[in-house]
Amino acid sequence: MIFKRIKSNGIAHNSYLIGARNEVAVIDPRRDCQIYIDTAQNEGLKIKYIFETHRNEDYVVGSLELKNETGAEIFHGPGLNWKYGNTLSDGQLFRIGSLNLKAIHTPGHTDESMSYVITDLSTGNSPIMVFTGDSLFVRAVGRTDLYGEKEERRLASNLYDGIFNKLLLLGDGVIICPAHGGGSVCGANIAVRDESTLGIEKIQNPLLNFASKNDFINFKLEEKLEKPYYFTQMEKYNLEGPPILGYLPLPAPLIAREFKEQIEKGAIIIDTNEPFAFGGSHIKGAYSIWSDGLSPFAGWILSYGQPVLLVLDNPGRLDATVRDLIRLGFDNIKGYLKGGIDSWNNAGFPMERSGMLSVQALKSMFDRHEEFFLLDVRGQGEWDSGYVEGARHIYVGHLEREIAEIPQGKMVVVYCSTGHRSGLGTSILLRAGFNNVYNLLGGITAWAAAGFPIVEH
Amino acid sequence: MIFKRIKSNGIAHNSYLIGARNEVAVIDPRRDCQIYIDTAQNEGLKIKYIFETHRNEDYVVGSLELKNETGAEIFHGPGLNWKYGNTLSDGQLFRIGSLNLKAIHTPGHTDESMSYVITDLSTGNSPIMVFTGDSLFVRAVGRTDLYGEKEERRLASNLYDGIFNKLLLLGDGVIICPAHGGGSVCGANIAVRDESTLGIEKIQNPLLNFASKNDFINFKLEEKLEKPYYFTQMEKYNLEGPPILGYLPLPAPLIAREFKEQIEKGAIIIDTNEPFAFGGSHIKGAYSIWSDGLSPFAGWILSYGQPVLLVLDNPGRLDATVRDLIRLGFDNIKGYLKGGIDSWNNAGFPMERSGMLSVQALKSMFDRHEEFFLLDVRGQGEWDSGYVEGARHIYVGHLEREIAEIPQGKMVVVYCSTGHRSGLGTSILLRAGFNNVYNLLGGITAWAAAGFPIVEH
Amino acid sequence: MIFKRIKSNGIAHNSYLIGARNEVAVIDPRRDCQIYIDTAQNEGLKIKYIFETHRNEDYVVGSLELKNETGAEIFHGPGLNWKYGNTLSDGQLFRIGSLNLKAIHTPGHTDESMSYVITDLSTGNSPIMVFTGDSLFVRAVGRTDLYGEKEERRLASNLYDGIFNKLLLLGDGVIICPAHGGGSVCGANIAVRDESTLGIEKIQNPLLNFASKNDFINFKLEEKLEKPYYFTQMEKYNLEGPPILGYLPLPAPLIAREFKEQIEKGAIIIDTNEPFAFGGSHIKGAYSIWSDGLSPFAGWILSYGQPVLLVLDNPGRLDATVRDLIRLGFDNIKGYLKGGIDSWNNAGFPMERSGMLSVQALKSMFDRHEEFFLLDVRGQGEWDSGYVEGARHIYVGHLEREIAEIPQGKMVVVYCSTGHRSGLGTSILLRAGFNNVYNLLGGITAWAAAGFPIVEH
Amino acid sequence: MIFKRIKSNGIAHNSYLIGARNEVAVIDPRRDCQIYIDTAQNEGLKIKYIFETHRNEDYVVGSLELKNETGAEIFHGPGLNWKYGNTLSDGQLFRIGSLNLKAIHTPGHTDESMSYVITDLSTGNSPIMVFTGDSLFVRAVGRTDLYGEKEERRLASNLYDGIFNKLLLLGDGVIICPAHGGGSVCGANIAVRDESTLGIEKIQNPLLNFASKNDFINFKLEEKLEKPYYFTQMEKYNLEGPPILGYLPLPAPLIAREFKEQIEKGAIIIDTNEPFAFGGSHIKGAYSIWSDGLSPFAGWILSYGQPVLLVLDNPGRLDATVRDLIRLGFDNIKGYLKGGIDSWNNAGFPMERSGMLSVQALKSMFDRHEEFFLLDVRGQGEWDSGYVEGARHIYVGHLEREIAEIPQGKMVVVYCSTGHRSGLGTSILLRAGFNNVYNLLGGITAWAAAGFPIVEH
Predict the structure, then answer these.
(1) Which 3 state secondary structure label does DSSP give C314?
(2) Cβ-Cβ contacts under 8 Å for D420 (sequence gap 6 or more)
(3) Inter-chain CB proximity B253 and D338 less than 8 Å
(4) Backbone angles phi, psi at B139, to 5 degrees
(5) CB pairs below 8 Å between A and C: how many?
């Protein structure tokens, strides 16, 4: 048996190759799908099937792309008006070499969500592993809020049933293979460990340890998760079939003068330097989205088709950065600044800097009763669990639309958990014309670590 | 949590990196240990501990080598007079970042055999995975015959107790990480799949499904496994601490004339071409051990310190071939024939060819009542399950010592399951001066597939 | 300045990346062109121009493929009715970062042949290197026979003029970058060394050291080079624009039964094992073309569009084998035999073997006055320089069309220089129904090395 | 023939593999020498000889290290009391496969400097390439100031003679292979292009185009090059045989708390972030040496044996950073800050920031007649060619020893060509207790590009 977990870091996405003999299936392929083809070729395997666990809203699915290159057949769950691939029925069986794959319908995260159970006929007839998509994660379950408030109770109820009446019945020993790992926007507090089983989840997953189904549902109804703006586009893409990408985009290496010309034509600048470096020197108008923040935050900021320019934290990250963007559907990447921000500075072009504060400095400001506006840009759940006294909360994803809430003419200090999302927040404020803006480096994490007080609600 | 399975194909050996935060432990490192160091460095991890599940008899353990480069501490099981590292006590606990590792004594395969149980404190207090060494494999258990017949009942009883009274009590959901996969000489019929759990094994492992402990023991007592000659040296090496290798040996690329000079100085030739290619053309005196056969069979043929010369099936396999040999302790690899057997032939040096038969040709020989000696060189267990009429059985590992059993002056046809071990057998006979020797290509597998009769005992 | 020589081994083809700052040009790209794109991206370079030195007849040019992915502009020499790209004029200048590239017309190999002279303006105004295409090689010059006998004198004269009146005038210190290295079918006896200059060639290249232009022309007129059948298709392809390949073909890994089915549907089998292994065991009907022989010989054997099946010498060669074939335009590669010839044998399917001889054995046959037909399949030039007594000469490329020349019912011994082309010859004879065919391993090289006599004409 | 140029970027060092058939020599190996061994193995070559062009003062030579692993013989030039290897005589010949290598004595850069001339006997008897060490570079020649002022005239005279009376006599077509490329501290203004010939140098190298030998010598006597402090240690190391390194050091990944503990024990911190990022946030006491600055500047700052801690600009640079340091002999690398400066900030530990200025801001300061101390830390030659009005010059390498020259209590603005060396200068001032220090981002390059005035001497 061959089993490979392919992790796509930014979106914390897991896809899988599962096969035996000379055949293999891919579960939930990503858009930059050459990795499945290369792996299959290296192992002497033919990609026979592509299974989607659900439509997905957080990334462009790679099924069509992979089918286009390999001819493999695509299968999805029932109930949606798919414009491509085949619709499965609950219980449908497939043979992949000496393996059996059984598709089981486990709605809840979405109505068409499927799980796929693997039996290895060379060792027995009981299940070995199950691909759980966004139904069951390690130490978490899928979010149930994507259809809006009205539908959430129904979805949470379905999710509970799918987990308790279908998945857990497979047996404690069955290995689980979810579609996301720690850091995904598709679930709350997914563990960073990838290896788990139904038996481990039964014991350790807090969501599977409520006293009743009702408690589970109520917990889910109270869960507050952000829904990035690009989800809407994703859902459409993945239902109708996203555009075929073919080769990865090739952003041009632009020298400072060429980069400036592209800015003047209206392209959006994303600067992937760490916030403290962005604060040190950046190009006016740039958004500060550190490398690991591209996947969760580019979708709040960018629009489809909009030309993008990159200032990279290091040139070796170009490929990863392009992949992060195209996985979200942002394909129009014009170029990147060759030589980075140094080359901009060396050209004598004007640079912008922005304020940064240590937690000690912020404490002194409090102690000296200085006046400033303190902005917390973390998620609702984080805010709910405690904050720095005097702070006002606006989630970073909403900041651009709610910019009117920020007072003009006052020093603004932005914080989040560590200084990254607040870096983005800072850049949004700078773009909006605020010029007395400070990012709290280390964020509330540093604040607490330094022994300064957290206010509980 | 970081978890990596490092597979060493030839010896079908699994070693593991397990860690969290900035620390990691290595379980059962192999001798060419740079892979652990590179992996750890790439992931930002410091190798803190090295755990051996047992002394090992089939490969040179890499603990000292790895400690030598990293400074990590070595731990082994109790009861042996180790000349290096620390001896564990049953139940001893270790902390690796946010993980707990608990050493539990599970004798049976050997007296000092240990298992290591992992708890991920970031998700709960119940066990997640267990490193089972040679105690419990996927669909098999460790061999219990290494101390000789007298001790086997005791060992089998201990093994049963360790599995049933210690390992299985950890819970069905616990993932198992054995020291070997399919193809290892350390167990019988290990499955080729790597992923399993205690729950899956409880259902699918035939060794865990006997009616009683007695049945388990009796089954083990009747098991017939070959014990390669080099095991004895291995046991000594691994107890006292094997020689530090440092860099991998660098076999010289020898042109035909230089290769010939080395042969004349007495080096042993190993030809790793496939048997049908070896039959087509080879150097007189060479052993035919196809690439995948090096790990299981070099230890029957080679002596320690003996200079070895290689004829490679392809030059890209040099590195893998060197690793296969040094993992068994055969470090004196003089060189390889640059350009392969072609270059030997081009030099006008005498080549040797050897006979090959298809199963159809063998069938005709039977039908025509031709006279020949039919030699089955498979293992005892395979022989016991059926053979070709008229065959005489000598295991290939013993053939060189039992060569007197082969009649002189008669056509000899050698077979095994597929033609590989019989290729080695053929080369042993050629070296011994037999010159009318034929290898049955495809072996008894092809014989059966072609519909010809198998004799049952 | 960035300068990279990209070697494509089979066709002994050199292509080049040459650039500076953030721009680069590609000279004579091959069809599997991702390597230029990856290299350029890694170095922070934009591919701006593609220059062809000439139409090429031995491989599918990659210009359109590369333009398709990058948008770079294509340039070729004058005088042909190109269906794509731009036609250059003699002396046309281009700027690539701080480099100047000057196109100079150097007909002779073909009428539209161009050379490209590089000046590095950051160090001076004199030329640094020249891309000579198929005009001037290391220790050789381009062939002048491609337009047929009538045109050869004119071409040879032009070639002489281009070399002596254009290239050599650039200065002895100028580095030469030809389109082919040792082993190419586009020139006779090209040296295996890649590094040379005009100054070195003036001294060491025998073609530049004739007493007169007339001597040069006469030497060229007497040169005998084979012209593979596929050249004609290539010329058409490269004039009109070859089909866009996109991704590399993905031959399916076929198990023996599936492979057999494809054979029965009429696909051609290419077995890339070395001749001695092919002789040991192969599938009836297969052509024997060893890996390094694919580029020079597949074009004599295969037709365009014909489905091809592969038996590989090792699975790691799949990618290289696919590239070798598509570079010649053979894109319809159905699959390969997973597990190689072993798996065929294990399935109990009938295998074929073929005769092989050592030179010592052949000598004995002569000494014993045995009767056999001795066939020399080397090129005309090799045959002209000496042969084994009694041999008949038919070039391997023509053997299939001239098969009627081989006597029926007689033992046939085939030889070439080392046993490779004679392996192909052997397989052609087997396919034609001859069944008493022997390949002389080591060929005339071994024959001479063993001290046996060569007949001079 | 095999010819490979192995570039070591930081020290702008070129080493070479040159060989044929199954043998190869290495010219001027670096200390992390596995690359030669791997390359040789991959190509089927045995490393037979190691040739040093001279003792070298800027990096630890890798000859002993390479000999230790491969057994190859070492050769150096005459006149020094070498403690290892063999001393050559002028004109000594070596055979490497089908190549000839001739050692010729070309003193000048140092007294024992050698060049090595290659002839490819398979193509002729005239030279093909010459390894020129630090005698002749592309568009430059070696420095002649290493023995002090008294010896410089003699050395410059010798260098001239070696170039004009030995090297240039080899012929214009001969390819030159120097020991350094652009950016090396071993020559002034070496071109960034690697490819050149004696013919090209004769035309384009300004050092070879003086009217007389006297002019050449006078130019050399006026040349002002800095000599880093570590050169003295290097010379001793390379004469006596540097310590064998074996494996590369493995700096531990330290979490913030562990990193802090190491600082408190007295280790030196090197922060390899770009200056603008260093300015944004760094640990108090750290030296700012950007990644590409490690090779030229670590040797001015660090002492041998001193424990070093790293703050990396990105974790992917760990390996390259370690190599940069050990090539200079700085082997005691304790660890690096896992998670970078973010993790320090998140721990709530105090961070330091430092001032940065744009050239526009500096211009305003001038225009507003603000008072500040302007420090130019460039090299003497750069200073001599123009500066910003009012600046005081102290070379960055000497700043720590000449810190008393900087006025206390005044704003200090530091500049260099682009902001990198001035970043190091800034960090030196911060360490010395100055707290009103500004780095001019973009440096005098940006100043000039923005159209602000440069003062000529």
Answers:
(1) coil
(2) A342, D274, D275, D290, D292, D293, D443
(3) no
(4) 65, 20
(5) 41
